[in-house]
Design the sequence.
């Protein structure tokens, strides 16, 4: 368990002084001039991922003090407690063992259970992939949050490895505009529905599952066929059985929703890429787990990224971080990270329920490059806020268009460099702007065309987006979130913040029919009346 919260350490006080003296005014351009080996000094290697952290607003002393902070907080002991299966999720009284889901047989707690389900799930995935025998051409995953975002992110990311004859669909939203267009394209005989829900009680998933079931019957499927065309990934085998599902793949309460893609929730991924590739995904994550467990804190990539997050959030006061994967397959990666990071660390009290005197989770957001460049990068370069950017680049593409890939890579490097280098007014003065108004004086125009620079970014580099590399990348982020959450002294594994809205929704749903406004606030009552008018 943790020894101290970050703000109770000696290193925290030292970092406050260090920030005033060497942090807030650090200029990256000068730092690179002072230290010609800065790139090497801030490069970190981990399984499948190389990280260039040199364009961040820190120096060697910052890293040393941050690493000391992690040590003082007892991060290593807390990490080891999680990996051993202690109940580190105290508010739910649960262990946190997603790492056990990707450990080789015999290497982690619950190994027999884990590998039993895994073997069965992968055999089932292979039987579906045998389309001549299964007749399945479409697989629809119905789930939300952690029961959707992981597979919905990983399947397009690994498109190059996917079965060409099976189309994967993801339905999550209770808004009927999600499932309707999906069902329109399907035929019952060719379709497999996966009802993915840890609890098998989530309103959205249960509602969409009921719609899918009715569609299946209305379109000519029989009750007897439900058992063949609907399968479940859940910890609630009893509720799945009541739904009419005969094939279920279970998992356990020690698998958090947002950490569940390695479990039966990964079934759509396994169907898409097959059992060997799915095992490679697990192996990549396991390699990162070993790195997290064994590398010294100073060389530990997830730990260093978590420390950098704390440095930016609590010392610089940056409120968000932008993620820019220069790989179209990773288009859902920012959305996946939003749940991973913001549901884990968007908390305001510590383990003891005491209000925190400092900020926690930043807003995580982003889009794939180069699309983001033509949307919000303007703000990143010239806006009034500093937003650290995380570029994810891939050395070798899985397509044959070398020219396109070179352009994607050049854009990625250019954006990271431009954020740091900026452009002075003096340089802007020398440039021509042929369409500028003739009445605008040169100095004014130059100020519009000036970039402050000194804006931080990191580059994470993969050799290729293979299943193994994706597994390692996701695990890297999981452990980074663990690190920042632990240092902030919070429980990263509960999510009470989603409960209030669920309870109010249950109260409001019958009122949409009855119109009863009793006890509602005036705004909600007014909106309810308008909706019924
Ligand atoms: O949004 C809250 C949440 O509990 C997530 O943590 C979880 O991933 C999601 O709902 C879905 O839950 P379930 O898998 O039980 O349907």
Sequence:
């Amino acid at each position: 368990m943790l020894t101290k919260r970050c703000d109770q350490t000696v290193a925290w006080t030292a970092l406050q002084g260090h920030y005033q003296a060497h942090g807030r005014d650090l200029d990256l351009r000068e730092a690179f001039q002072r230290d010609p080996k800065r790139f090497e000094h801030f490069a970190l290697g981990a399984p499948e991922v190389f990280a260039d952290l040199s364009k961040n607003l820190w120096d060697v002393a910052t890293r040393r003090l941050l690493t000391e902070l992690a040590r003082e907080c007892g991060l290593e002991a807390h990490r080891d407690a999680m990996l051993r299966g202690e109940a580190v999720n105290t508010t739910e009284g649960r262990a946190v063992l997603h790492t056990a889901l990707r450990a080789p047989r015999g290497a982690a707690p619950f190994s027999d259970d884990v590998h039993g389900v895994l073997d069965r799930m992968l055999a089932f995935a292979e039987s579906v992939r045998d389309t001549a025998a299964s007749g399945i051409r479409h697989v629809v995953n119905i789930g939300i949050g952690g029961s959707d975002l992981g597979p919905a992110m990983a399947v397009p990311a690994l498109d190059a490895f996917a079965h060409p004859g099976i189309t994967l669909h993801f339905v999550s939203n209770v808004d009927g505009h999600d499932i309707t267009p999906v069902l329109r394209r399907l035929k019952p005989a060719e379709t497999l529905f996966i009802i993915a829900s840890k609890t098998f009680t989530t309103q959205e998933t249960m509602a969409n599952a009921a719609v899918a079931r009715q569609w299946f019957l209305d379109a000519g499927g029989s009750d007897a066929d439900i058992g063949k065309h609907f399968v479940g990934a859940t910890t609630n085998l009893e509720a799945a059985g009541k739904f009419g599902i005969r094939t279920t793949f279970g998992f356990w309460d020690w698998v958090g929703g947002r950490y569940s893609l390695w479990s039966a929730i990964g079934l759509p991924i396994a169907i898409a890429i097959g059992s060997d590739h799915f095992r490679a995904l697990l192996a990549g994550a396991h390699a990162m787990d070993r790195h997290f467990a064994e590398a010294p804190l100073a060389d530990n990539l997830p730990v260093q990224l978590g420390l950098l997050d704390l440095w930016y959030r609590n010392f610089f006061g940056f409120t968000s971080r932008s993620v820019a994967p220069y790989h179209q397959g990773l288009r859902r990666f920012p959305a996946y990270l939003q749940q991973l990071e913001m549901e884990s660390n968007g908390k305001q009290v510590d383990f003891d329920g005491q209000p925190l005197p400092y900020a926690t989770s930043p807003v995580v957001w982003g889009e794939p490059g180069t699309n983001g460049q033509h949307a919000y990068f303007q703000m990143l370069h010239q806006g009034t806020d500093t937003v650290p950017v995380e570029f994810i680049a891939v050395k070798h593409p899985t397509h044959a268009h070398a020219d396109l890939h070179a352009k994607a890579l050049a854009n990625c490097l250019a954006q990271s460099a431009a954020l740091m280098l900026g452009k002075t007014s003096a340089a802007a003065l020398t440039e021509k702007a042929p369409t500028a108004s003739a009445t605008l004086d040169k100095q004014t125009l130059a100020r519009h065309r000036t970039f402050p620079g000194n804006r931080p970014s990191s580059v994470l580099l993969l050799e290729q987006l293979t299943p193994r590399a994706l597994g390692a990348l996701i695990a890297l982020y999981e452990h980074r979130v663990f690190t920042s959450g632990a240092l902030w002294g919070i429980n990263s594994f509960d999510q009470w913040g989603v409960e209030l809205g669920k309870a109010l929704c249950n109260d409001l749903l019958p009122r949409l029919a009855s119109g009863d406004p009793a006890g509602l606030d005036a705004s909600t009552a007014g909106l309810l009346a308008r909706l019924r008018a």
Notes: The first helix runs from residue 10 to 23. The first strand starts at residue 43 and ends at 46. The pocket of 6-O-phosphono-beta-D-fructofuranose is lined by residues 144-147, 197-199, 202, 205, 257-258, 343, 495, 498 (CB under 6 Å).
